[in-house]
UniProtKB/TrEMBL annotation, chain A:
SUPFAM superfamilies: CheW-like. PROSITE patterns: CHEW (PS50851). This is Chemotaxis protein CheW. Residues 26-162 form the CheW-like domain.
Length: 167, 757
């Protein structure tokens, strides 16, 4: 199940970066830090990365929704990943950035992270599924002895637009 | 294939509109020569397109329709009111058939047959009319045939050359035409027209004189074999109708220049020797290959005839160019003042001005980008001011220039989205037609200002309320025919639907010449429905406005059409939700007028900028009825702490905006002395007073959806981007009022029950 959905999510990236063999498809991921923990998402779902700016607070929003920003005429919401994942954020961080992500259904939103670390090719075969807790993560992967969580973007969107919505 | 089909359907819509316009003109007796042709062409194009897609129902119907129209076109049938009514009815069937072909609801076969029969009656009960001898002489018909690939047979045409021209003829019509290269290019030939024109003359038992004007012919070595140089001049007997001549040019109108003169004086011609002519023609350097000559001669059968043609004086003739000059600029052409000669080029120019199809999303993208441009420009400006460059006169000038430009661009993009209200207005013709036939009343709808442009978002939302109002006007406004005659009015009722721009808004009025609002009956009904007290004294205006009250209907009998009691209040709500207002005025016995005032666009909103608990928000100005500075003595607290404010005897629930929206750091103030509250009103007239910190100003804001990338938020209808690039929320006043009311009512009820206990 876990494998299946990550395959869906990264279908495009697979087509571009597959190195032989369906089991060990390789996906280019962007790795970032939230607090002390590192996470990654497929790079092809990323639209752009921009500095964090003041957001407009939204009424009745969950705690992890920072607010709305204007991206060249499109209004989108920024999610504070630290709050979303229940991690204490780095204090006094001026390098905080917003990764703008576009879902397959075209919903655009921002992920507030502490800093972007690097890009990595991750073989789908190396992903260790987690116990499906809240389904925040697809699984974990080990790169150079760092444990990196693979964020499940579908769940993020579902939280954002509400269950009954387009996703 | 689907794409092409889609284009066909779009074209069908356009043709149907054309048809409607044309028939309306015929009905209103302001038809021009070309109107019938336009109507005919519209049906013909639909038929042609439908045939190529194999849409049999459509083809069958449009064929019969076309035949009947052809009768009118060839003056066999006089378009009486009844016949036009049949045409209009058939048009509705045709448009339904188009919808059916598009995959919509299927059309009642009986209705189609009924219309078909009526059409056949119009065309003289002869479905074979097209093959009748009369029709075969119809020049346009033969042209139409020539248009389809028929086997080409050479058929010698008898020309009368120069010397015949000198005969003192009776008044004649002189047709001068010059085919463009394009006409030969698409396989047509001047010969076809000459044949058609001579046939016209023969019809009237006369002959046509054809001459060829060769003065445009260059010297032989400059001659391009594929170019058209010759101009033809045909003298026809005066008995040939102008429309017949125009028909002959119907298919080539944009590929030739053509002028029509009525020449009462006897034509002067200089008889030049044909052989001289030929000599001049070949007065060119000697080395001409056989091929060149052949190519040149083969250029067209018509041009090859030039050698025998005579050369008349040229100065008396109005050339196509001269006409073009006369007509320029095209925008100033008044249809009815137009000179008799309409050059093909002018027609083509008009067509070019028509339109292009652009995907709406592209225009929306453009809008977004322009919005950003405005913001970026404002940012540059404020940065420059901050950096203390105000001394740099030239820099500031440049920035100001940019500001003007960006505003102009914004306006221009808005105008791209604008569309004339014609499309929705014309649909109303059908509404009135159906409503009047259902109520057995004769009603005509007069449209005015159909060219008034509004944003297309609005156009789409206008149809429903307008339909409702027009049905109401037919059903309740216009009296029965007997009553009208008794009142000394014309038996036919008249409803005028007009649109105009007024101070940045669009004003739509629906005016009927019916009986007007029956104040007594309205009052009685309102009392009966418990809307007002029996002893209430109301002004005329107040009585008029009663018809907008929910659950009000004066029609004593509930008709199919309207009068189910959900009439005008629904209209009012629809109009108000578009940010509009509706006003009624009525004169007993003379009729009533409904005026709708609407914003020009739904993409932009006049907003009031307010701040509450450090958040800037926008409230639609149309919802704000007043701003009050509170004096504590007007504020009353309910037992549970909710507060109401009394204003002119009315109690309005107070709503601390920040708290209601759950903004962080929002707090309830102890005293409201000196606080600013905005009284807002929703569609149904309920009110609430919003406590805000400050009113920051008023501005036009571009409406952006929140739901596109997020979910619906209670109390927020949309968002916008302010001048500094930040996001501001647009408040959903109706929701806030509903919340305020339920809160107060619940708590008041609770309070009362506590007191009782």
């Amino acid at each position: 199940m876990t494998m299946l959905s990550i395959n869906q999510e990264t279908k495009m990236s697979e087509q571009l970066t597959t190195r032989e063999g369906a089991d060990t498809a390789s996906v280019k991921m962007i790795v970032f830090a939230v607090g002390a923990q590192e996470y990654c998402i497929p790079i092809l779902s990323v639209r752009e990365i921009r500095g964090f700016e003041k957001t407009t607070t939204l009424p009745f929003a969950p705690a992890y929704v920072c607010g709305a920003i204007n991206l060249r005429g499109i209004i989108l919401t920024v999610i504070d990943l630290a709050a979303y994942l229940n991690i204490p954020p780095e204090l006094e961080n001026s390098r905080r950035v917003v990764i703008i992500v576009e879902s397959r259904a075209g919903v655009v939103y921002g992920l507030l992270v502490d800093r972007v670390i690097d890009l990595a090719d991750i073989s789908t075969g190396d992903i260790q599924p987690t116990s499906d807790e809240g389904a925040c993560l697809h699984g974990l992967v080990l790169i150079e002895n760092r444990m990196i969580g693979i964020l499940k973007l579908d769940t993020v969107v579902k939280h954002l637009v509400g269950e009954s919505s387009k996703e | 294939m689907d794409e092409i089909l889609e284009i066909f359907f779009q074209e069908c819509d356009e043709q149907l509109q054309e048809l409607e316009t044309g028939l309306a003109a015929l009905a209103a007796d302001r038809a021009e020569d070309d109107t019938v042709n336009a109507v005919f062409r519209a049906v013909h194009s639909i038929k042609g397109g439908a045939a190529s897609f194999g849409l049999q129902n459509l083809v069958r119907f449009s064929h019969v329709y076309e035949n009947s129209l052809d009768g009118v076109r060839s003056d066999r049938i006089q378009p009486t009111k009844e016949i036009i009514a049949v045409f209009l009815k058939s048009m509705d069937v045709l448009s339904d058939l188009v919808v059916e072909a598009r995959g919509g609801a299927s059309v009642d076969a009986q209705r189609v047959d009924e219309s078909l029969t009526e059409l056949k009656v119009v065309s003289g009960e002869a479905p074979a009319a097209t093959s009748s001898p009369a029709a075969s002489f119809d020049p346009a018909e033969s042209e139409a045939e020539a248009f389809s690939p028929v086997p080409f047979e050479f058929e010698p045409v008898a020309f009368d050359f120069g010397d015949d021209f000198a005969e003192p003829a009776s008044a004649r019509k002189i047709v001068t035409f010059h085919p463009h290269d394009a006409m030969y290019g698409c396989g047509d030939d001047a010969r076809n027209i000459l044949v058609a024109l001579t046939a016209l003359a023969h019809d009237k038992g006369d002959t046509a004189q054809v001459e060829c004007l060769t003065e445009a012919l260059p010297a032989f070595h400059d001659l391009l074999p594929a170019s058209s140089y010759l101009t033809w001049r045909v003298a026809l007997p005066d008995s040939v109708a102008e429309s017949e001549i125009r028909d002959a040019f119907d298919w080539v109108v944009d590929s030739c220049d053509f002028t029509l003169e009525s020449d009462r004086a006897v034509t002067e011609t200089t008889n030049s020797d044909a052989s001289d002519e030929a000599d001049a023609f070949f007065d060119a350097p000697a080395s001409i290959s056989e091929d060149t000559i052949q190519a040149m001669v083969a250029q067209s059968a018509g041009q090859a005839l030039s050698r025998g043609a005579s050369l008349p004086t040229t100065d008396r003739r109005l050339t196509a160019e001269a006409f073009l000059d006369d007509l320029a600029p095209p925008a100033t052409i008044q249809r009815d003042e137009e000179p008799i000669a309409l050059t093909g080029a002018t027609v083509a120019r008009k067509a070019e001005a028509a339109s292009i199809r652009v995907d709406l999303s592209r225009v929306d993208d453009l809008m977004d980008l322009v919005g950003e441009l405005v913001i970026a420009q404002a940012a540059v400006q404020s940065l420059c001011q901050k950096a203390g460059t105000s001394g740099h006169h030239e820099l500031m000038q440049g920035i100001e220039g940019m500001q003007t430009l960006t505003r102009d661009i914004q306006d221009a993009v808005m105008s791209v989205r604008a569309q004339p209200v014609r499309s929705v207005f014309q649909r109303m013709q059908r509404v009135v037609r159906e409503a009047s036939s259902m109520t057995q009343k004769a009603v005509k709808l007069v449209l005015e200002g159909e060219d008034t442009e509004v944003d297309r978002t609005l156009i789409e939302k206008l149809a429903a309320p307008l339909t409702h109002m027009l049905r109401n006007a037919v059903d309740h406004g216009i009296e029965k025919t007997e009553d009208r005659i008794a009142a000394g009015k014309s038996p036919e009722g008249c409803i005028t639907l007009s649109a105009e721009h007024r101070s940045g808004r669009i004003l739509i009025t629906i005016k009927d010449d019916g009986a007007g609002v029956n104040h007594k009956r309205v009052f009685e009904t309102a009392v009966k429905r418990g809307i007002i007290a029996p002893d209430a004294t109301l002004s005329e205006d107040e009585i008029n406005n009663l018809i907008f009250t929910p659950g009000f209907s004066t029609a004593s009998e509930v008709s199919d059409l309207s009068g189910r009691g959900v009439g005008m209040d629904v209209v009012k709500q629809a109009i108000m939700s578009l940010g509009g207002r509706i006003v009624i005025s009525s004169v007993a016995g003379k009729g009533s007028t409904f005026s709708l005032s609407l914003p020009l666009t739904l993409a932009i909103l006049d907003g009031m900028l307010i701040s509450a608990d450090e958040t800037t928000m926008v409230i639609p100005i149309s919802a704000v009825s007043e701003a009050i500075i509170v004096s504590q003595s007007d504020v009353y607290s309910l037992p549970d702490g909710t507060r109401i404010i009394s204003k002119r005897g009315e109690c309005i629930p107070l709503l601390p905006l920040g708290v209601t929206l759950g903004l962080a750091g929002a707090r309830v103030r102890d005293t409201l002395e000196g606080a600013v509250v905005l009284v807002v009103e929703n569609e149904s007239g309920s009110r609430a007073a919003l406590i805000v910190d400050e009113i920051c100003g008023q501005m036009q804001v571009v409406i952006k959806s929140m739901e596109r990338n997020y979910r619906h938020i209670f109390g927020v209808s949309a968002a916008t981007i302010l001048g500094d690039g930040s996001v501001a929320l647009i408040l959903d006043v109706s929701a806030l009022i509903a919340a305020a009311l339920s809160q107060t009512e619940n708590k008041a009820a609770l309070g009362v029950s506590e007191l009782v206990n």
